[in-house]
Design goal:
57% of the residues lie in helices and 0% in strands. The chain has 70 residues and is an all-alpha fold.
């Protein structure tokens, strides 16, 4: 038997993630997602990049962390 879900703000946030990611994508300009971002990182305009995550999200960011550290 599967446990029942307990409604609340945490569950609401989890279920809203696909919509939030879609809104983020729509809010970003195409320019923000192209190779220009890499050039801006390399030319020193950004001193730091902050990657955050918990659990599997943190582990999913690790390859990006390694790539940016190159």
């Amino acid at each position: 038997m599967l446990p029942s879900l307990i409604p609340g703000p945490y569950l609401t946030d989890l279920l809203a993630q696909p919509d939030a990611l879609g809104a983020l994508r729509r809010g970003l300009s195409d320019r923000a997602l192209d190779g220009d971002l890499v050039a801006r990182l390399r030319d020193g305009r950004f001193r730091r990049v902050l990657l955050t995550g918990m659990g599997s999200s943190l582990h999913a960011l690790y390859p990006l962390h390694l790539r940016l550290s190159e």
